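Lay summary. Proteins are chains of building blocks that fold into shapes, and those shapes determine what they do. In this project we predict the shape from the chain. Here is one chain we studied, written as its sequence of building blocks.
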Amino acid sequence: MQHYFKHYLFFFIVVFISFKSQAQFKDTAKWKALFAVGVNYPTTDGFVKGSYAKSVNFPTINLGLQHMLTKRYGVKLDYGFNRFSNDDSTPEFKINYSRINAQFVYDPTEYFTFLPMRLRTVAHAGPGIAMVKPLGTLRDNKQTYLNLNAGLEVHYAINEKVAIYADIAYLYGVTSLDDYNPVLSGLGAFNGSVFNLTFGLAVSLSGCQYCD
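And here is the predicted shape, written in a compact code that computers can read:
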């Protein structure tokens, strides 16, 4: 009898720990650090006529700090770096596109009851500053302007503190390209929009402190 009791006790302990762990996956950590790497595509209308970048460029690097005010709403401050270069059929250039954005964060996961326990969705949007710096002899064509960032993240929890995630984002440039005469003197200038696709880690910084 004692032998069976030990088996039953072990079974219920495992079930209890499992349910407790699953519940924590649905909790929302107040503070998170985010790091992601991926690729980017800058729109062709952001370059001077006759010039455009490759359709897929590497790298894109995003670093962020997120604070959730409630389970659904929060804010995020993040820095992003993109490098893109000319397509084979256009004059040669390389451009560093850096940005800093303050974003509003919305987590609608609790409404998607069909999602697996470990999955979470996060939408984000907000304004920022974009800093465009051509490399080499084109450095005089650097620009700084307002941008708007909007995107959607899908997180998969590895454990209570760490999740892997994918983020697809659109960076809209709120500016217009300067007039260059001749046009080629504006090579390396960019004021357009950028699509980013990144994959990374989200790490809880608040331990077991979750939003109410």
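What the prediction tells us: The longest strand covers residues 119-134.
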